[in-house]
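In response to a reviewer's request, we include the raw inputs and outputs for one of the modeled complexes. The two entities were modeled together in a single run.
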Amino acid sequence: DAGITQSPRHKVTETGTPVTLRCHQTENHRYMYWYRQDPGHGLRLIHYSYGVKDTDKGEVSDGYSVSRSKTEDFLLTLESATSSQTSVYFCAIRDQRDASGANVLTFGAGSRLTVL
Amino acid sequence: GESVGLHLPTLSVQEGDNSIINCAYSNSASDYFIWYKQESGKGPQFIIDIRSNMDKRQGQRVTVLLNKTVKHLSLQIAATQPGDSAVYFCAEIRSNDYKLSFGAGTTVTVRA
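The model returned the following structure tokens for the whole complex.
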């Protein structure tokens, strides 16, 4: 997965508890993204980062916060988890495939979160 | 609103046949279109992309066609194999913000 590590890979938690998912990359990519994937919705952007301490909201950012204190780590936090946040979360980095190609996203393996 | 979507949620294909997966988009400002493949329990993997000023691009066993007139994108897989069973997503990128917008995906099942 192009040097992207997500942790934890699986987590079960209870409603109202805080949860932090970590994305770690080893290739010094500037742009990092958090997506969630739900049946019938495809992948939806939660937050993204364009550098250390530089982040912005995506289309489904409510209930989530992020932090990027160093290039290699992008953290996604659910301050008070709800059942609607049960999902599979994917981290991604922006990568240029070739000189004429798009800056595409390369995804991690995902973190499956269940909120009871 | 602007969206990227796929025509059919599922596709069943006989092994060895060619597969065609379709996608409709509505944002004319997109600069690139990308196809991703997602196998069970894994993250999406890049297959092929096409710039908006191109009509066709070929890769290994895959071809992407872009019809800007009707805002339609397709992925053709030649000689479909069991390993091609997966969910396929199309996505679009606008160069000004590099945010990907994904469709809901087509699940391809290859019959032996």
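As requested, we also summarize the result in words. The mean pLDDT of chain A is 92. Chain A is about 0% helix and 60% strand.
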